[in-house]
Design brief:
This protein is an alpha+beta fold. It has 2 domains: 287 residues, no CATH class; 36 residues, no CATH class. The longest helix is centred in the last third of the chain and has 29 residues. The chain is 29% helix and 31% strand.
């Protein structure tokens, strides 16, 4: 049993490889963040802790925020390092049909609201062939029927974001080698892409950086062998071998006014910034629960009234809803025939980063509103109905 626990712990730890390389719900989103109410950017009593990586005056001081796992009694699960004065909100997703590992969705915003760094929901898809493939659950997965490079996926995301691509490149050789080395340990194939984009937010020229880490695995199930129904008795093959390829895209996105982008990039390029580290005690608890649930499934005695099990199922339903939302918007982008090349028209440059920003809002149970009297935008709970001078808008401030 100890060997199994260690193996499972390693597996959970490796789900954060992409987070570490990219900068780095299952649960109810409104209270999953440990960043207080998000109003002043200060850590809550049981959430973030300040870590002086520099002085507060030069903006290099940082703090650690802890995202909780509500399916494990609000246990601290993942640590994310952000600038000390920034606001933070994060939530943990459990595995599902399209994404096989636990992952974090989070957003960090500068005190003035002009700069932003966010970890988007993981996007997954499955393709393959063989007798059993058609019966695999794929609801909410992206409509991909084959492999895709990280660069091509980044170009698709440029279309989803409605921005102008300045440059799309694979990871530099050293980064790619590190990514491949980490992925080989867990029998994955992985590659990354870096993209610079531009767009306009009202009259303000904006610049953004998009990082994609694409991880894929392949499994092969032999065709079923059974005894022949007629003499002489011998083994026969039924159907064909099943080959299943599963891919997941981990995406991070940062934006700021174009004049401030160099400083934003420098601020988040410091080693350790954003790294999502799974807390060891949580990994052990998650592994123990996994083993217990596996034993219940094996023996057929799953207790459906168990509160933890119900919490997990609610998490799966919430994740499926987010994945379906992203699936629908991704399909719309593809059907519109969005131009994903490097050459974009002037009109496209004026377009907005609407869809993906709204994904993160949806995952974090937030919505963007504008005060029609002042023109200022802000975030409020998705459970509140905007009224009076508040008007619901997209994540970039454009009307819905």
């Amino acid at each position: 049993m100890e060997v199994k626990k260690m193996a499972c712990r390693f597996g959970i730890g490796t789900i954060l490889v992409a987070l570490a390389l990219m900068g780095c719900k299952g649960s109810q989103p409104a209270s999953a963040s440990t960043g207080g109410d998000g109003a002043n950017g200060s850590p809550s009593a049981n959430g973030g802790s300040a870590v002086a990586a520099g002085s507060a005056d030069d903006g290099s001081a940082t703090r650690v925020e802890r995202v909780k796992d509500e399916t494990l009694n609000n246990m601290d699960a993942v640590e994310v390092r952000i600038p000390a004065s920034w606001k933070f909100q994060g939530v943990l997703y459990q595995p599902g049909n399209c994404v096989h590992d636990t992952y974090v969705v989070w957003r960090a915003t500068s005190p003035d609201g002009k700069r932003m760094y966010e970890r988007m929901p993981v996007l997954g898809w499955t393709y393959g062939s063989g007798t059993l493939f058609a019966s695999l659950p794929k609801n909410g997965c992206l409509p991909m029927n084959g492999p895709m490079t990280a660069v091509d996926f980044a170009k698709y995301m440029v279309g989803v974001l409605h921005v102008q691509a300045i440059d799309v490149q694979p990871f530099p050789q050293a980064m790619e080698a590190q990514l491949e080395q980490e992925s080989a340990r867990v029998h994955e194939k992985a590659q990354g892409a870096l993209t610079e984009v531009r767009f306009m937010n009202g009259s303000t020229p904006m610049k953004g950086g998009l990082r994609v880490v694409l991880k894929c695995t392949e499994s092969v199930t032999p065709a079923i062998r059974v005894l022949s129904p007629t003499p002489p008795v011998h083994m026969i093959t039924q159907g064909t071998p099943t080959v299943v390829d599963h891919c997941e895209a981990n995406i991070q996105y940062m934006t700021s006014p174009e004049s401030e982008f160099a400083g934003l990039n420098k601020q988040w390029s410091v080693p350790g910034m954003g790294n999502g580290q799974g807390i060891l005690a949580w990994q052990d608890a998650w592994a123990n629960r996994y083993e217990q649930n596996l034993q219940r499934q094996t023996t057929g005695f799953i207790n459906s009234s168990n509160a933890i099990f119900n919490a997990q199922q609610e998490g799966y339903r919430q994740q499926a809803a987010v994945q379906q939302q992203m699936h629908n918007e991704f399909m719309e982008t593809m059907q519109r025939g969005t131009n994903l090349s490097m050459q974009r028209t002037a009109d496209a440059m004026q377009a907005r980063s609407t869809a993906a920003s709204d994904w993160v809002d949806y995952a974090l149970d937030r919505q963007t509103v504008r005060d029609v009297n002042t023109g200022q935008t802000g975030k409020i709970s998705n459970q509140v109905t905007p009224g009076g001078s508040l008007q619901k808008v997209h994540g970039d401030g454009t009307p819905q």
